[in-house]
Design brief:
single chain, alpha+beta, Chloramphenicol Acetyltransferase, eight-stranded mixed beta sheet, six-stranded mixed beta sheet, 18 strands
Amino acid sequence: MWGICSRTMVKVGMAKPCGLMKPCHLVKPVSATRVTGRYLTHQKGLPNLPVPPLQQTCERYIAALEPILEVDEMKHTNELVDEFQKAGGVGERLQRGLEKRARNTENWLSEWWVKVAYLEYRMPVVVHSSPGLVLPRMNFRDKQGQIRFAAKLIAGVLDFKTMIDNETLPIEYLAGKPLCMNQYYEVLSSCRIPGLKRDSVVNHAKSSRPPRHITVVHNFQFFVLDVYNSDGTPLTADQLCVQLERICSSSLQTNTEPVGILTTQHRDSWGKAYVNLIKDKTNQESVSAIQRSIFTLCLDGAMPRVSDETYRSTAAIQMLHGGGSQWNSGNRWFDKTLQFIIGEDGTCGANYEHAPAEGPPIVALIDHVVEYTRKPETIRSPMVPLPMPRKLHFNITPEVRKDIEEAKNSMNILAQDLDMRVMVFGHFGKNVPKAHKMSPDAFIQIALQLAYYRMYRRCCATYESASLRMFRLGRTDTIRSASSASAAFVKAFDDPSKQNTEKVALMVKAIKAHRSYTNMAISGQAIDRHLLGLKMIAAEEKLTMPDIFTDTAYGKALHYQLSTSQVPSKTDCVMCFGPVVSNGYGVCYNPMDDHMNFAVSSFNTCEETNAAHLAQAMEDALLDMRTLLERTPAAKL
């Protein structure tokens, strides 16, 4: 299971494509050592993230650049890398500094990672950082059905929370090795807090008085809903239904100022607006209640009416950004780590703020919740009167109103700019690559390389996130899917002078190369986080930045025109996110046994890119690769 983190990679290299980077500021990361008891024992048994050998990373860096650089650029970069790694040089000094940091910390990367990849990233979290998740359309089409399903969903999350609180979550494994479970402790009762130059994350789960409420948003109005009885037992779905009905009936009017839309702003703008907002005591208390809540539930109004063909793409837009100020973008609090979104028409999903966790823990929680909602209820509700859910009030000063108007305008521009296509590839799923003894993930990634090459006649820097959770407090590293082997395959595929047997041999080689890089990445031996670490040491020691990092090749290496992630799940869902560069694509996929779900995004303001065209090219590439395998006898061996 790969984590999701592609949106952050441009700025993590601290190259500056598209003006996305701002100067660095040190900041306290998400607290990451709250795990106690059984999990503490498990966590302590995990290995520390290694620091790869310098020469190995330099050699692999050069190999990764070959498919995306011109010959003269390669020559120049080779010279810089040789200079960087020579005996007694700056590379060795930085390597020693990094190795020393690794000896003195639980994870040499995690604190830097949260700081540089998220909390110092100043673009809006909406589209640029926070992923959305689209669930299959649920079987209801009215307010009553929406409330009923929402009640069961809340009960399902609380059931999962009990496993977190009691430390009874099963340990996860990857390639037979136990994984770090820390991220599960970071997603509930946590929230991002905007700052003027950098943000922070607070987690209330292990405070002396952990939260007992969620926040519910309906018609842009926020409510505190206590989800535990006085004896500490969670409310049943029946009780939650009563409470949600009360919330909906007391928030029928829609003329409220959508305070939540402020969280869609550029982080510097939101930081300033936040200071204005919480000057008022009532506002401060309301914001604090949202931040402290276990999670947020967004009960959405209507979604644009669309054809069945475009339904999933429109649903993805609702999960990712809410569709703009005229739809549901104001019915959110995007700083909240976890938001469940339920529309009246059966549209359901989630949005999550990325700083505390990757996709797989979120998906595991959602898989559990979806399964829970399908079970018949057996618990009878106690006949006790429940306190009325409490509406959160906001005093809207002229200054705050101006901030809200600015947020609406910028959100609408962003909503119009994002092109999102969800494609259900129904021809086959994981079954076909597996039948040919090929990794499904590698098969999909090589198909994506072929699709891109057919559209642009060149290869590009491609990011796929790999989980580092084999290591204590591990987050992600980069699988670089564009390799010399994949380049050779995609260039040969449509060449009529090449025999099918040769094409298959090149395909097998490309898939093996991807699999090999994946194994390297999940075992802590990839290049990107190591290079970031060396760069961070140079910055901390106030050294002149080595030429290897100011080289245009490094900028190209981090300009991910394909930013991708596999997020598998038991539920037939798909995660979605925006591109990380202005002329790039975001591609997320969930391969099921007999079909695959893809979400492809691009920006409309870029004339070079088109999400629908890439989705179609992807479909063609997958089908053509299968046809090639079926027509070539050697492939059946």
